[in-house]
Design a protein that fits this description.
457 residues, nine-stranded mixed β-sheet, eight-stranded mixed β-sheet, 9 helices, 29% helix
């Protein structure tokens, strides 16, 4: 399977230990991506006894396979939020993500973060109309965007919205640094420590090693909930997969770009150890629904060569992103009947700022501090028709795939989560489940949940 540019250029480090005894803690965090690490850092700074459990190695999942954009400009989102949630909540979403950007600036080392303008661009009349609509939302919300035609790219661009002085980061090095700060604050991080059973009533976790973790409060930061817990949050997440390629570049871009129309592309450069890399991403589709995924990589490689005149390809990788039905992530208590279990997921391809923002929300809930965004991000929020509609759509997909998969893909292994047939992904050499996004390595071991048990190959 391919490896991302970020994982290939991570800081050298010693592995964190495995859990080798039964342990207790105030707060246990499951998941060693940026979300889990940020929670560990903030809670340890508040004096909590924190344990973080990662089944593989930290930052090797969504964070290590991201585009590395730390920005509050999340594609075309503010016009939609303004219409659906109103002015105060749409501005609140911007404010807490902007605060996350500022936090990143405050802690990052020089080789982990670089200032860059975030730029939305259009390539058609329809795209430009969408940009104008989004710009009206910026103006109403007081977001300091600039409408015009700001581009250094050698492609046709009709219009842009620029948000100046945002950040692009090396997400793995940044996350490694934050993990070190969390440990210095008192958090305990464990790798190769796979949770196989949760007894939430007893507040007890059982690990693959046979050891147990007793907790007072639990935070699920494992990209997807480990099980369909109360409220069936896993049934309310759609999962998209997108592709990223990198090539050796000859100069760094001042901005980081994302198209609002077709072809949908995300563009940035990265400077790592005195080398410049050009990153191009796009080609999204619903997770687990395609077998011939090499075509997506090849389209990106072709664009890099033909449009940007770069020929030395270095990496190709893919990312998987769960999305809530109403665009706002879930961060908070998973159910009022179980107020000591917290969920953080559904970042919609904007997990770097939302991971930090969500960690702030959950930390404040645990230590009893007010946070204006806790209601907006609550997993238990209700009242939106789209929420129910998406839940029904996702559930319907599960039923459809369970039936058709067993009939048409009889040679494919069965996902150990809920029994759907997986599909072989030839681009990444993984078995992917179209029902809830579980992914398995070539040998059948779990790469991404919600599945916890390996395939029977």
């Amino acid at each position: 399977m391919s490896n991302s540019l970020w994982l290939s250029t991570a800081y050298p480090r010693k592995p964190y230990p495995e859990v080798d005894e039964d342990i207790t803690c105030d707060v246990c965090i499951i998941g060693g991506g940026l979300s889990g690490i940020a929670n560990a850092y903030f809670l340890a700074k508040e004096g909590k006894d924190v344990i973080l459990l990662e089944k593989d190695t930290i930052l090797s999942g969504a964070t290590g396979n991201s585009t590395g954009k730390l920005t509050a400009q999340h594609d075309l989102v503010y016009a939609k939020l303004l219409k659906q949630f109103g002015q105060d909540n749409a501005k609140l979403y911007f404010d807490i993500n902007d605060a996350a950007v500022q936090f990143g600036k405050s802690i990052a080392k020089k080789d982990e973060l670089r200032a860059a303008d975030s730029i939305l661009y259009s390539q058609s009349k329809l795209g430009t109309d969408l940009l104008r609509y989004e710009m009206k939302a910026y103006e109403e919300l007081g977001i300091p965007g600039e409408f015009g035609k700001n581009s250094e790219l050698p492609i046709q661009i009709d219009a842009t919205i620029t948000l100046k002085n945002e950040n692009q980061i090396h997400p793995v090095r940044f996350g490694q640094h934050l993990a070190q700060l969390a440990v210095e604050a008192g958090a305990r991080i464990y790798e190769q420590s796979d949770v196989i059973l949760m007894d939430l009533k007893k507040r007890l976790l059982s690990l693959q090693s046979g050891h147990e973790v007793q907790f007072t409060e639990l935070i699920l930061c494992s990209h997807y909930p480990i099980e369909a817990l109360r409220g069936l949050q896993i049934m309310k997440l759609s999962v998209d997969r997108s592709y990223i390629v990198s090539a050796e570049g000859n100069m760094a871009l001042r901005g980081q770009y994302i198209a609002v129309d077709e072809p949908k592309r995300s563009i940035r450069t990265a400077q790592i150890d005195e080398k410049t890399f050009f990153l191009l991403s796009g080609e999204s589709h619903q997770a687990g629904m395609e077998r011939e995924t090499l075509v997506h990589y090849n389209r990106l490689y072709t664009d890099v060569k033909e449009l940007y005149n770069l020929s030395t390809m270095t990496h190709g990788w893919s990312a998987q992103d769960p999305q809530t039905p109403d665009l706002i992530p879930y961060a908070g208590i998973i159910s009022s009947s179980m107020p000591y279990v917290y969920l953080s997921t559904g970042y919609r391809k904007w997990g770097l700022s939302n991971s930090i923002a969500s960690a702030r929300i959950i930390t404040d809930l645990i230590v009893g501090k007010p946070n204006r965004a806790s209601g907006l991000y609550s997993p238990d929020r209700t009242g939106f028709g789209s929420f129910l509609l998406q839940a029904l759509k996702t559930t319907g997909l599960v039923l459809k795939e369970f039936t058709s998969g067993h009939i048409t893909r009889t040679d494919s292994p069965i996902c150990t989560h809920m029994g759907c047939r997986t599909r072989w992904n030839n681009g990444d050499e993984t078995w992917d489940c179209p029902c809830h996004g579980s992914r398995f390595r070539k040998d059948g071991s779990v790469l991404e949940g919600p599945a916890t048990k390996p395939l029977n190959l």
